Each structure stands twice: as C-alpha cells, then as structure tokens.
What does this fold into?
Amino acid sequence: MLLWGTFMLATQALAQQISVSGKVTSSDDLMPIPGVSVKIKGSSTVVQTNTNGIYSIKATSSDVLVFSYIGMVAQEIVVGSNSNLNVVLKPTANNLNEVVVTALGVKQQKRALGYATQEIKAADIANTNQSNVINALKGKASGVQITSAGGAAGSGSRIQIRGINSLNPSANNQPLFVVDGIPISNNTDQLNDNFQNTNRAADINPDDIETMTILKGPAASVLYGLRAANGAVIITTKSGKGGKPAFSFKSSYSFDDVATKPAIQTAYGNGNNGAYVPTVNTWGPKIEGIPTYNPYDLFFKTGHQAQNSFTFSGGNESATYFTSIANSTQDGVVPNSDYGKTSIKLAGTLKASDKLKFEGSANYINSGGKNPRTGVSSGTIYYLMRSTNTVDPRDYLNPDGSEKTYNASIQNPFYFTENAYLRDNVNRLIGNLGVEYKATDWLTFNYKAGLDHYTDFRQVYNEVGLLISPLGSMTEQRISYNEINSNFFARASKQFGDKWNVNFLVGHSFTHINGTNLSLNGTQAVVPNVESINNYNVYNPTTFPTKKNIIGVFGDLTVSYDNTVFMNVTGRNDWSSTLPPKNRSFFYPSTSLSYVFTETLGLKDNPIFNYGKLRASYAEVGKDADPYQIGEYYSTLQAFSGVSGVRRDIKVGSESLRPERTKGLEFGGEFHFLKNRITLDANYAILNSIDQIVPVPISYASGFDIFVTNAGKIRNNSLEFLLTANVINTPEFKWDINANWSQTKGRVLSMPPGVSEIQFNPETPWVKQIIKTGGRPGDWYGWPYLRVSDPSSPYNGQLILDANGYPSTTQQLSDNFLVGNAYPDWVGGIGSTLNYKGFTFSFLFSFKKGGDVFDIPKTQRYTTGIGAETQMRNEMVIFKGVKNTGTAANPVYVPNDKAALIDQSFYNNSFAYRLSTENNGFQDASWVRLQNVSLAYELPKKWLNKTFIKSASLSVTGNNLWLSTPFNGFDPEASAYGAGSNSVGYVGTGIPSTRSVYVGVNVNF
Amino acid sequence: MKKLYIYKITLVASLILASTSCKKEYKDPNAALATDVLNSSRGLTGIAVGLQKLYSSSRTGVYFNSVEANGFVTNELLLSNAGNIPELQLFTGGNSVDGTNTVLGNIWSVSNKIIFDADNVITNAANLADKNYAAGLIAYTSVFKALAIGNLSQYWEKIPAGIGHNVGFVTRLEGFNKAISVIDNALAVIAASQPSVSFKASVPKNLNVKNTLLALKARYALFAGNYPLALATADLVDPAGYSTFDFDTNTFNPIYDIATSTNNVFQPSNIALGQTGAFVPDAADQRVSFYTQPIALAPFLGIKGFGSALTQSIPVFLPGEITLIKAEAYARQPDLTNALIELNKVVTKTPSSDHFGVGAALPQLTGTYTQAQLLDLIYKHRCIELYMSGLKIEDMRRFGRPNSERKRNFFPYPFTERDNNPNTPSDPAF
It folds into this structure.
C-alpha cells in the first residue's frame, strides 16, 4: 500500500537520455518476472516489466535504477554506459522491505506494522508433509499453541494464539482463518467426545498455500472484526504468474506408527488377589511358562499416508490462472480407520483494463473417512487399557464370528473398533470473486465476496451386542454450514512532499452464517450387522438450525514520515444478530505506532547493527455471543405415553447481554544485526478481556442450572521471541538457524458476582479444572495428602499416615489445593536448514516446559494391575512420614513405623481414596520433540537439461521421530477432548499421536 | 461503464444491509419462548406432560436416581461396575459421598426444576377461562410438585424454602408438610371443579390424579410423623384406583434401560433383598421372586419387579403401601389389633390378587405381638413389599434402625448449590 504513493507522479523529460532495457528474472527458478517496477531513483519515472520480464526505460548514465517487486529484494543499479541491464531478483529473506499480508489481504511493508505478526512460507509448510495445515505450524510459530487430538486418521488439531480470552468453557478461543481475504470455517463439528473429528481448516490443500501469516493480537486483526478476537491466520494461496505454463507434481508416501506407549508389567497374569480368574484384572498369579502379550504393541499397526498433488499455472499480461488437484489417503494406525481428501482448485485473475481487475477462485474439497470410537469411559483405548497380559488380544473371534471374551464386562479392542465407528463425508466448496477498481492513481475500490459451504454427512454405527449398545444403535447426521462474506473497501494513498505518506481505508463488511445439524438416531436394531438407518425400531430425530449475521463498518488511517515513523488509527463498528437490539452495535478502536530508529540514527549501513524498530499498539476488539444464548425456552419432547409435552431448558440467558471486550496493549521491536544476517523480533503483550459472556452455574433452587451473563475479567501476558540467523551464506553452502520462544500467562482478575468458580470440564471425584479469581486458566485442583502443617513441628510438611500406615487425604476435593496447571510455562522451537549443493537438510525441535496433564486411562492401568508401576506388589512398605499418637485435637506426631501392604486393594483405592491426585494422577508433560527432520536432494540441472523437466527433488522427511518426556503413557500431546474443546490437559483416551516417515518426490516442468 | 460495477456493488451491499434487520433474530427459533408457553393452555399442558417425563424417565430423572441412591445406601443394591463413580460413592457410603455426586445432583436439580415449573403451571392455570381444564392442570402438576418436595425431604436435612435467588432453607419436616399442603390445595381445586375430559385426554392416561394425591398425602403424613392424618388419608384411598408411569419405545423404563439390560450399574444385593437378621424375607415369600430373577452372568441375581422390560409400567404407589401405612399408623397409636389386621392383609396377599402382582402369599401371622415386635414386622414387610421404590431410607430412620445398618443417613448438598447459594446449610456428618 505504501509503495503506491511512491510512483506514477508526473514524469519529466531530461537531456542526454539513453534507452535502457533488459530482462528481470527470479533467482528461484530463473523465470522472468512480469510486473516488476523499474524506477529511476529520486524521480517519479516508473515502468513495469512485461509478461516476459522485459522492461525498457529512458535514463541518463548517472541515474540509479531501482528494481522492486513484492516479495523480492529490491535492487539498485547505476545505469552507467549499459544499455542492456539484466537483473536477477532474489526473494526477500529477513529483508527490510519485507511485505506481509495483513487484514483484508492488504499487503503491507513489515516495517510499517505496529504489532506482531509472523509469516510461514510455502516451503516450510510443504516440508512437513502434514496434510492438516495447522500441524504444519507446530514448533514454528511463536505464541501459538497447537494441540492435535491424536493419531486417528484425519484427526483434528486445535490452534490457539496467546492465551484463552474467554472464560466460557465452550467459547471459541481459536483464531479466524482467512483465505485470500475471505474468512472460512475452521469449525470442529464435535458433537460429543467419542470421536477425534477433523477441524475444517484441514480441508485446505497445503500445496495451494503461498504464505500463512499469523496475526497475533487484537491490533492485527481489528479489521476482521469480532470474529478475529482470538487473532487470525491469514492464508494467501498461490496464483499463476505470467510466462510459460508451469507444472508441478508432488508425491509422498508415509509410514506411521505409535512410538510412545505406557509400560506394562509382565510378571503377574490375569486374575485377582494372586489367583487366576478370567477377570478384567491383571492381579493374578506370577507368570510362569506361559506367553505374555503386550496389548499396546499388538493393537496398533503401521499406518500409511499417500499424498499426490499436481498444479498447473500460467498466464499472460492480462490474465493468470492457477489450478491444482490434490489427493491424499490415509490408512490409520488403528485397525479399521482411514481418511482421505481430494481438493480441486481453480483460481484466476483478469485485468480488464489498467484500472479494473477481477480475481476469483473456486475450491472443491471432498474429505472424510472412518474413525474408531474412543471415549472416556468406553471406547477403543479404554478397552485397550483394560486388556490383560496373558490373553492374546488378536484372538478375538469365535468361529461363528461373535466376540471371544474372557470377561463379559470389557470388550476386545479389535472387536470394538470393527463394530463401533464413525464415517464422515464432507463436501465443501470455497469460492470468492473480487474486483478492484483503480479510480485514480491514489484511490482504489475493492470488493470481494466469498462463499464457504460444506455438508458433512456422518454415520455413527454401534453394532448389536456391544456393551455400549446391547440392542444396537446408529445415528445419521447431516451437518451443513454456509458462510457468505462480503467485503467492500476503498483505499486512498497519497504522498505529501518528500516525506509524508498517508493511507486511508474505509470499508464495510457483511457476514452471514447459517448452519443446520439434522440428526436421526435409531436404536434397537431389527437385524444385526445391517449398517442402515432403516434397520431400527425406535427413532429420535433432532435438528438445530442456527443463523447469525454480522455487519461491520471500519476505517483505517496510516500516516508515515520518511518511511521511519508510522502511525496507525483504526476504528470499527459491528452489529451482531446474536445480541439483543440495544447492545448489538458496538465500536472498538485501535492505534499503533512504529519507529525505525536506526534511520534517524543513521545506522542503515552500519555493518553490526543495521536495523532497529520499536513498536507499540493499543487495540480493543469485541466478541459477540454464540447464537441463541438469550432468553428462557421450552423444548418440545417426543410424544410420550401418547401425548406430547415440553421441557424447560436448564439455561436462561440474560436479556441485556453485552459483547465481550478484549483490550490489548503490545510493545515490541525488531532488530537486525550483521547486515540482516541475524534478526531478532521481541514482543510483549497484555490482553485484558472483560465482560465475558459466560454460562454461570446458579443455585438449583432458582429452577435453572445455568445463567448466561456478562461477567469476569481475565488477563493474559505474552512474551514472544523470534530469532533467525544466517550463519553461512555462500553459493555452495548455506546454513540458517531459526528459533522461537514464547510464554503466555493467564490470570483471572474477577469472576461473575456470586460465582466462585467455573469448571472447564465435568469434575471427577479426583480432579477438576476450574478457574476462579486469582487463578489461571488450566488450574488443576485435587485431593491433597494430609500433611503436618505446624511450622514449629520438626515434622512440618511430612505425610500423616493413617492407623494402617497408608497415606491419607483430606477426603474432600479441596477447592484450595492447587495441584498443577495444564498450560505450559513456555514453549519454543529451534530449527535449522543446511544447503549444500543439491542437498537440503533441515530439522526442527520443539520444546514444551511444564504443563501438567491428567492421564485418564492411568486409572485403568492402576486398578487393573497391568501398568508397570503396579509390578511392585505384595510387599510391605513403611511410608516415610509420621503417625499421630495423640488425639485429633491435640496431635502428637512420631515417625511412622507401621508397615503397609501394597496390594491390589491399595492400587484399586489409589486413585479414589488413598493416594491423592497430588502426584498420582498428574504428570509433568514437558517435552523435547524432534518435530520434523528432512533431507532433500535437488537433482542437478544439467541432468535435466535435455528433458522437459525443469527441476526435480527427492526427499525423506520424519515427523515426531523422537520424544523425550518424563511422562509415562501415550504421547501426552493428544488431547482427550478433541480439537473443538477448551479442556486442555486431559489426555490418554484418544488414539495416540504417531511418528511418521515420508518419502517424497517433487517435479516441476 | 466501469463506474457501473461500483454502483452495482454498492447496491448489492445496501440490499444486504437492508435485509438483515430482523428484531427477534437473537432469539432461538428452535424452541418455544417461555412467555408463549406459559400463556396458553396447550403450553401449560405441555409442561405438565413434561414434568411426568422429567420425574419418571431417563438416567437424570428423579425416580431412577431416587431408587438408585436409596438402594445403594440401604443395601438393597449391589454395584455392578466400580467405574461408575457416583454410584461407587453411594455404594461405599460415608465420607466417600460428596457434593460432586451426580446421582444426588440429579435428584436435587430435577426436583427443583419440577417445583419451579409446577409453580408456573399452577399460577398460570388460574388465568385460564376453562376452570375445569385449569383444575386438571393444577391437580396433575401438584402430584409432581409433591413428589419432588417429598424426595428432597427424604434425602436432605434441609430443603430450599422455595424457588428463587439465594433462597432460604426449611427443615425436612417442614418439607413433608409443604408437600401435604400442595396436595391439599390440589384436592380443594378438584373438589370445586372437576378436571375436564379434554384435559384428561391431553396427559398420560394411567394416572389417577385424585387417588395419587391421597396416597402421596398419606405417605408424607406418615413421614412427617402425623399418624392420625396418615391413617385418615389412607382410608380415603380407593383400593381400586391405580396409577402408573408408562413407557413406550421412545421413552424407556429407566430401571430396565440403564440397569437391567446392561448388567453394568446395579443389581439386587442378594436373595434376602439386602435384609439381615430378623428382617430377612421368609423362605416362602413370593415377593422375592417377584423382585429378583436368576441371570446367567455374574452376579447371577438380576432385577425383575418393575424393571424387567423396556416398556414396563412403574406404579406411582403400590396398594400394599397404603395397607402398610394403615398398619403402621394403628401400631403407633397404639391400636395393635387393627395394626395386625392390616399387616396380615399384606402378609397373606397372593400375587394374583394384587393388581401389580406383588404378593407374599405367606400364612397369616397369629399370636400376640408387642408394639415393638409389630413395628419390626411392619418394617420388614415394608422393606420387602416396597423393594426398590426409593422409600427404604425413610423407613430405616422412622423405625429407628441404627446408622450402622445404612451407608449414609443424610446426603451432602451438591457443590453447585453450596457454591452459588450462601444459605446452603452445612453438610451432615453422616
């Protein structure tokens, strides 16, 4: 935008001009670049290269030509006596004139921004071979947390920028996804916790992406309005370039397995109290002379992913096109699970005249597969956890095809997986059409309308005879989502004198979202083994249509002085249909300032410290409610005893609901050293979110369970660093290092009046995740051990053991006993890329420090006695601590000498009553992980000279190959509650995360 | 020409603007607004029907949770799966039971909801022009309001005094008396105007409202220790007026659906129905084989009674309960002769002569019994006759059975209540 004002002013004819011409090519592929602006420095004479990258300009020998193109390093060349100047432009890397895509798809110079952004390039996304674009960001983006819901084929991932800013456990705390200026849905239509449903951004073909920009704070995303209150991920897709048609083909094949598994004991077999019984438990006799089986090793298999994509692009001076077709299939690590995705995209631009430009794209995606049923108290992993070690889990079928069981209260995981699953089939169309009209050289109008429409057809099937469905059940569900966005804006850009530059933008946006979820549930199958919704005796249909409209008007003014100081003010007013009429209109402003102080200090050419920028911003952003939160309702009931009735909803919503507000203050800086070889970006942000829209539990004696109101305040402080270093940079050998580190601390400053805590998940008798005033999101509360709390006692802090010599607890899930926090203290990543001749080697380690997780199935491993921890059994142990020889009122503590028996009942009670969750249920899930490692070889050009192939490369990539963590269990990354949930830190019930090795080939011709 | 595009765009944009200003669009179109429901007789009838469903069906219903909570702490029931945490708490008893318990939470919250909606119906029915229809609504909803208040009073020492923000609490005795006054009001309303035929056709059919009101009044008078009132009211109950909660293939018998069919929640404790010592059923007592049946899988004894089929009806009260109320009220007067006469009606009743098939078919008790002996016998027969009906814990207290015979006497208040209502009383020790 800023570049705009700098050209196309009046031209002046000068004496002694010569005609200079040449070709501008890209160092990437040596292809000509059309549209490069070639400017005579200090004058307003500008020409542009044509489709073949050829330019021609009249200049004097003393003139300096400036060649600039978005995304490329500008070059300055003195004309001298040359009448033919060929120029090779290099793509920007750590460059001062780096351009980033910001809100509304507007390209801005990075130096002008007063807030933190981070851009991830196509190569870095492609490098990971991840078919879900969110996973491709793992370990790369600072201040961004990505949690995948596990290793099920097509499983979703959750992305959160900085902290959570809604206290509402069901609020969406994930950023807005914007593709080419138009928001798209990243919903995870997760209707229960039994499946690791896909998040919808995973539908995007990663090979279509040119760049992803992460707008972290409210200042960055204010122009997208309330839907970007949690930040935004701006995706710019590839587009065709002028010149010869370009083809590319990419193919990869992977091997996936579950690497990290909990340890089991194989000393004792199936049984109870030392004797064999065909029970669920593994508390039987010592194993002698019979084979043992590790159910975790036997259950998971090697999965595979095959990805193929083909792109075809090209264009001429007035039109460009880009088409892609991509297909990926995945065979999961769990039997009977798969996922596939096919994406077809067509995009084009048309320059109708110098002033009028059209662009449009359409992307059709079909995705879906078959997913195993998981769940907290029944499901594939639950049953796997309850399998014993002396029964072969693979021997699970009787000759008649029925399940072979050794105990009626559990199910064989293989059998369960084959008989309880979800199929889903998504058909999606994302499209947009835009027009840009350049009214004058300083004024442009831009209109873009976009559509995102998908239907998700799901079938959840439970065979007759399963414990969860003795009579069989099936649900057929049709989810449809429709989003229409319309954005109009006018931009004015004008230079005043030499130094002042003013940009002004004003616009209007309209968003309409409607969705339906039509579901038909059938129970009591007529005939077993018939997977059809027609096969049931009892049906229960439901539908939940929702509708939401948002209208916004906005303005943005940027004034810059001498390309050194940039000041920006924005304002936006939104009207949301989900709020009551009196509160539905709300305004929020932002302002930011950035200052490139090295310009003022004249350090521009300093070899050590050549660039320094300080930035500060203040921004507010509002957030509306989910649809239909307001009011008191009755829902109709199915006919009952021949008559129909209604039932009052347990929730009542305040009639004076206001929008939530987040106010963010941000400071940061960007510093480049050694001629940009080392760059550092540091940022500190404080976000205060007030007027939270929260469903608060109220006294049942009110007749309701939940009241939806505005209340509460939460503060998030984030510190982020990004460092890049170009250690070696020779034509033969290049070595780059990049690192990021970030920390987010949330704090609840106030709660709704009369509410002492809000639960983030159903509490169990052992643990709850709640927030309360002074607490942090993700705080775990559990049962404390009884300990001596008398500073004058020599035993202060020691365990108080009961009469039988066992540790005892307060017998109350104490609100005041904080046992940990589910969010990490900090996260980071260190990556490096080495290029030597045709070889590229890169790796990325990701780090997570802290973050306590509650491993749900650990209970199973303890109580059933298969967990390795339970091998220590049938021993007398004297717990370290004290016993009370006095009375409860007047305790007299003496060191404990009472030996306690460690046996089945000890472990059985360990989770419930004897050992508190203080240390037993929780584990520190810090980790160091080799997120990604890749070796690629680019075939030498000379081998390909005679062929039609322009370039070709081979690669081997590994994801998640190595993990070091104190946690014992499956990979603690996989969240139990899926990508759509705010409940972090519950792990272990989903299909565990996998490690993958990919081999790939990439050909351009 | 080019300007034309801009005009078109602007036009489209303003059309979009203009088409999006519906005033009510923040309200949920998928459900009925409370004000609409409460102002129509159809809406009020819908609530009344909903109350029966809320009370009698599903795992969250008061009936199921009452049978379960009561059954675990009074040894009627055996826990089938220790993975059911709330059930495990109740089965273990004592301090294990805490405010997180969802079985108790369901009784508490659903009962309060029933009371709130019954109040809404009773208040708004008074505005209806058709007084006979209104009488039907009031009487019908009063049954559920009384049951809700009664259930709360059975399990907690104090219960909310009403519905509202930060409500105070009254004692459980006041609770039982409140249930009685709700019933008295309903009886007065139907005495003044007969419930209309059109009302009766709009609610589940097998609920004899007047007789149920009288039976519940007798039950709660007994629980309140008002024996003369209990006796007088029990005498008014028509022995041939039966009431049942009915189920169909959409709304299942909750005991069968959740416990019997899954063998994964609870089963009868044992063939003695959890009774010990002198209270163990006689070997020939045919009620044992009415309430239990052998099953193929562990624990080998399964639920029968009123939880043996998916659409089996559940009686709102048993005829035997009314007879036993009379027997107990006489015994406490003490009128031992009449007490024994009434008790013998239950002891000798054959399954075929009982509407629901509950019959001991034992020989008549003869001989002389002291008041204490007679009360013990009445207690024993209540435990057997009314097995798994959610009343045993109240009987244990009223007959002075020691705390050691049960796993919990009164329940702690749900955390949600304690956290959000400062008037919540402190939890009982046991």
Observations:
- Residues 567 and 593 of chain A are 5 Å apart (CA to CA).
- Residues 1-15 of chain A have pLDDT under 50 and may be disordered.
- The domain at 99-237 of chain A is CATH 2.170.130.10 (Ferric Hydroxamate Uptake Protein; Chain A, domain 1).
